[in-house]
Specification:
This protein is of the alpha+beta class. The chain folds into 2 domains: 272 residues, FAD/NAD(P)-binding domain; 165 residues, Beta Barrel (Elongation Factor Tu (Ef-tu), domain 3). Helices cover 31% and strands 16% of the residues. The chain has 13 helices and 17 strands. The strands form 4 sheets. It has a 6-stranded mixed beta sheet. A 6-stranded antiparallel beta sheet has the order 10-11-12-13-9-14. The protein is globular.
């Protein structure tokens, strides 16, 4: 049956692609606008839809972890992107990691082949009056940012995000580095991570060099926003700080952060190292690895000099250097409802990182909800407002009810969910997480069965 209704989706990232699929499967014609490759973002490398920019990991896949719970909710609600991710998986311990190139191509193929989706490679510079989902992401273009600012009547919020370097596997010195996942000593598996162990002396020298290294000055496109939108201060998102910024907080801050050595032993000494840098496989071929949690904004020449001080990376070759870029998000507590609808326009939805939801799976999830809700709106049904006891419901409640003054992007976590009922006995952290996850899936099933 030929669609009789049409919507516009702005942005072909994770949220926009998922939203397009959800609406198209409800026999709605979707015009999906993606400005790449005609207009670059400064961070993306390809023209594929749903390109993963920062990392290739979609977070934990364990059912009693917040990210794992959100994935289980998306499986129940029919996520297309999660299905693509599970078909392009690569080893990452308990996390779901993908070959980012194959994943993006798989999503692009699904979107391009759907008869109800029309992909338009063009920059959208205004907000249509027809039913629309804005999923333009953290690198929303200056012209569209101005249009959103004019619509909202408020300034955007800004923070700066950073990417971690990617290196070639065959350039890693495996006589120093070793394979292991945390706490897996004695298992038959050799481990999904490559670990570079520091002694205290090596760590101290590395930290000193990191602090003294020269950084990249932010580009004009990151600082100069067109009339109607003002650039804010250089605020960093706490969940994705550059390594050099973490190091400024104290000499041991990295050793207790991305370089924490817990659960690992150096096979050369059978002792826990003072600190450890972990590398995670980045593609199916296994020839590229990324520096886990080691985002940076050092100059490229400085990255070569400083990161080659890491034990095992003395002669490492870089496929991609780390870099920083501007992230944009709206003041969702003032502007959005938990259904992801704009506060004073029913047929306008926002989804993805521009809403203040962080993490790949959070972006997919809000895209799914926006896509299903715009389809329900056109069908004359009330939009879904998921229970706050579900992870997706809790995320949507958080971004629309947080204190606007202190609003910061938020990843899926159990802390934003309602507390468990008192049981009269003390529960451990893992038990509380498992019970919240169990409650979430029960409540989601009950809610969906009613509608």
């Amino acid at each position: 049956m030929k669609p009789t209704q049409s919507i516009t989706i702005i942005g072909g990232g994770l949220a926009g692609s998922e939203a397009a699929w959800q609406a198209a499967t409800q026999n709605i014609h979707v015009k999906l606008f993606e400005m790449r490759p005609k207009k670059a973002t400064g961070a993306h490398q390809s023209a594929d839809l749903a390109e993963l920019v920062c990392s290739n990991s979609l977070g934990s896949n364990l059912p009693d972890r917040a990210s794992g719970l959100l994935k289980n909710e998306l499986r129940r609600m029919g996520s297309m992107l999660l299905s693509c991710a599970e078909k392009t998986v690569i080893p990452a311990g308990g996390a779901l990691a993908v070959d980012r190139e194959i994943f993006a191509k798989a999503v692009t193929k699904k979107i391009d082949s759907h008869p109800n989706i029309e992909v338009i490679r063009k920059e959208m510079v205004e907000i249509p009056s027809e039913p629309t989902i804005i999923a333009s992401g953290p690198l929303t273009s200056a012209k569209l940012s101005s249009a959103i600012a004019a619509l909202t009547g408020e300034e955007h919020l800004y923070f700066f995000d950073a990417l971690a370097p990617i290196v070639h596997h065959d350039s890693i010195n495996m006589e120093v580095a070793f394979r292991a996942s945390r706490y897996d000593r004695g298992k038959e598996s050799e481990g999904d991570y490559i670990n570079c162990p520091f002694t205290k002396e090596e760590y101290d020298k590395f930290i000193q060099a990191l602090l003294e290294a020269e950084r990249i000055k932010l580009h004009s496109f990151e600082l100069e926003i067109e009339k109607g939108v003002k650039a804010g201060a250089h605020h960093y998102f706490e969940g994705c700080l550059p390594a050099e910024i973490i190091a400024e907080r104290g000499e041991k801050s990295l050793a207790f952060g991305p370089l924490r050595p817990v659960g690992l032993r150096d096979p050369r000494t059978d002792k826990r190292p003072y600190a450890v840098l972990q590398l995670r496989q980045d593609n199916l071929a296994g020839d590229l690895y990324n520096l886990v949690g080691f985002q940076t904004n050092l100059k490229f020449s400085e990255q070569q000099r400083v990161f080659r001080m890491i034990p095992g990376l003395e002669k490492v070759e870089f496929e991609r250097y780390g870099q920083m870029h501007r992230n944009t998000f709206i003041a969702s507590p003032r502007l959005l409802r938990p259904t992801l609808q704009f506060h004073n326009r029913d047929n306008l939805f926002f989804a993805g990182q521009i809403t203040g939801v962080e993490g790949y799976i959070g972006n997919v999830a809000t895209g799914l909800l926006a896509g299903q809700n715009i389809a329900r709106l056109l069908a004359g049904h009330p939009p879904l407002q998921l229970p706050e006891t579900t992870m997706l419901g809790a995320l949507c409640h958080y971004i629309t009810n947080a204190a606007p003054k202190d609003f910061q992007p938020m990843k899926a976590n159990f802390g934003i969910m309602p507390p468990l009922e008192q049981s009269g006995k003390k529960r451990g952290k893992r038990e509380r997480a498992a019970l919240r996850a169990e409650r979430a899936l029960i409540d989601l099933e009950e809610y969906l069965s009613k509608i």
